[in-house]
Here is the input.
Amino acid sequence: MNKQVTSMPIQSEFHYQALTPDLILTAIESLGIYPETGLLALNSYENRVYQFRCDRGARYVVKFYRPERWSAEQIQEEHDFSAALVAEEVPIATPVMINHQSLHVYDGFKFALYPSIGGRSFEVDNLDQLEAAGRFIGRIHQYSSQAVFQYRDRMSPQLLGNDSLVWLKASGHVPEGLREAYFTIVEQVLAKATVIWESVEVSEIRLHGDLHPSNIIWTPNDGPSFVDLDDARTGPAIQDLWMLLSGDRSQQMLQLEVILEAYEEFCDFDSRQLALIEPLRAMRMLHYNAWLSRRWADPAFPMNFPWFGQDKYWEQQILAFKEQLAALNEPPLSLMPQY
Here is the structure.
């Protein structure tokens, strides 16, 4: 039996209704940039992102930030961070400066303009690409460890875990017949993840924050380029590494070895952080469910995630969290011994 998902009284009002094509074009033109082509919507649900070519032949990506998610100070800190990395010769997307500003506002919408970066998908099973990515992540962390974010969030079990759990309990999105099973296993997973998190004392640095393979664009001549610092946060360095691992345990250990050997050409890595991989994975799973719930008033979400309202999805989540609890109880990944 499927349960119809409805929007909740506690959700904030949906804000993108006013972001019409005419408003988007007018906002871009207010910067003195005139689109020659139509707007191609890119794969982004949190924000609204479009690619176009202007009348002078340059290709751009315009990003309209979701209202009320980040403050102007938080967005500007992200922009300043990416610009500083570019100055360090790190290939990362940074907004175009127009009239000495990277963050613009039109009719209440915050937005930024980026140069379009061409390339192909990053291959997580390609060790050469992993090595190149590890080298540049090391360079990012070498720079980012020199200071801290003033306005961006800090990663924690409270932010990613407990806050997500509280939201889901109040949301009404978990089917009634599965609530007890779902929340019982989630609470066990979160408790175990929190214990591990608190047992590992490591320094925290400025992070990309959401460095999954889709946020790396590969170019044959220039190697990796990094995009989308929208979730930049303070946290442990391993957060920018673990999502690049795939396959079984032995494959992940090999990938980790390749990444860290290149990474440590520029930045030391504290191996104690390896114990945080499974807690971070667990909190990401929970945060993802809460994210879908929080955004359900946005029509793009029911359209693109219709299975979120089905019992089968939550049954699969219960199974996934049981498997994650088992993973949390296993020894963490370790580096291969050196001979």
